[in-house]
Design goal:
The protein has 294 residues and is of the alpha+beta class. It contains eight helices and 20 strands. The strands form six sheets. It has a nine-stranded mixed beta sheet, sandwiched between helices. The chain has a three-stranded antiparallel beta sheet with strand order 7-19-20. α1 links the parallel β4 and β5.
Length: 294
């Protein structure tokens, strides 16, 4: 399947314990809070012997806060992973003023576990458990969902009406993604997934080998992280921002991560079909397909 896209820069974007009340026997908090961090682990998973597919969900919580749609999604994800035998650990962190450091620290901690996949989910994202299973089934080293910007682009409404789009609201949203330059201005889809240049970390699934490859290829990213909430620790700044070497553009932490992986010959895949919610002053729900389908 081919869909038409516009290459180049996308729209401006913003940056960013007890289970008794939940499904019985699904999750427990280990511990509830320690040094500003929370850890939840599925009881179906042993930290000594992770199953073949085991996912660590990592969420930096700006200001120590998270949205209700995010927590609702986590509760459903715990039950769904337990039912399917997929290992799951949830790590929340707050109190770090630098998103580059917070993400890099969490990625480094992930490498010290036996989990097979790291899923970054932002605290203002709503999703369905099937979204994760869809990414796992696609089985690419770096893949993610594309969610709307927290802004209705009213200028898109007339065109959406002319095209007969069913969900006008979703079609009038911008999406956090950047397409690779293409002579045909199109993207070939595989089961609703397409290759892109840059992907946001708000719902990004990373296989372990992506991180180990970047760590080996970019030794200058290794450093010691110090802050008030934890002892000094050696880590790799996987999500350090960078200046794009071709055009001198400043790349945010998620785009810089994708660029480093692509420079190593890796591919970046986006799910065009999955509908996700981005919470701001309102809830913005849609899929990238809503915006590009004709």
């Amino acid at each position: 399947m081919l869909i038409a896209v516009s290459a180049g820069a996308g729209p401006a974007r913003d940056e960013c314990g007890d289970s008794d009340g939940l499904t019985p026997g699904v999750a427990e908090v280990l511990p509830a809070i320690r040094d500003g961090r929370a850890v939840l682990r599925s009881q179906s998973m042993s930290p000594q012997a992770a199953p073949r597919v085991s996912v660590q969900v990592c969420t930096p919580c700006y200001g120590g806060m998270a949205s209700i749609v995010f927590f609702d999604a986590l509760l459903k994800l715990q039950a769904a992973c337990a039912a399917r035998g997929v290992g799951l650990e949830i790590r929340l962190t707050g109190g770090d003023a630098l998103i580059t450091r917070a993400r890099s620290r969490m990625a480094g901690d992930f490498l010290e576990t036996d989990h097979t996949h790291l899923l970054f989910v932002d605290a203002d994202i709503g999703f369905d458990p099937e979204h994760l299973f869809r990414l796992l089934a696609f089985d690419k080293p770096l893949v993610g969902g594309v969610y709307p910007l927290k802004k209705t682009m009213w200028e898109k409404v007339p065109d959406a009406v002319r095209r007969g789009v069913k969900d006008i609201q979703a079609a009038a949203l911008g999406y956090v993604v950047r397409f690779a330059p293409s002579e045909t201005q199109s993207v070939e889809l595989e089961d609703g997934f397409g290759q892109v240049a840059y992907l946001p970390t708000g719902f990004m699934l990373i296989r372990r080998e992506v991180l180990t490859a970047i760590a080996a290829a970019y030794p200058d990213l290794a450093c010691t992280i110090t802050d008030m909430n934890a002892p000094p620790k050696e880590t790799v700044m996987f999500f350090e921002t960078m200046i794009e070497p071709d055009n001198r553009e400043h790349l945010s932490e998620d785009y810089a991560f994708c660029r480093r992986w692509r420079d190593l010959g890796g591919e970046v895949w986006a799910d065009f079909q999955t509908r996700m919610t981005h919470v701001g002053h309102a809830q913005y729900t849609g899929s990238l397909m809503d915006a590009v389908a004709t």
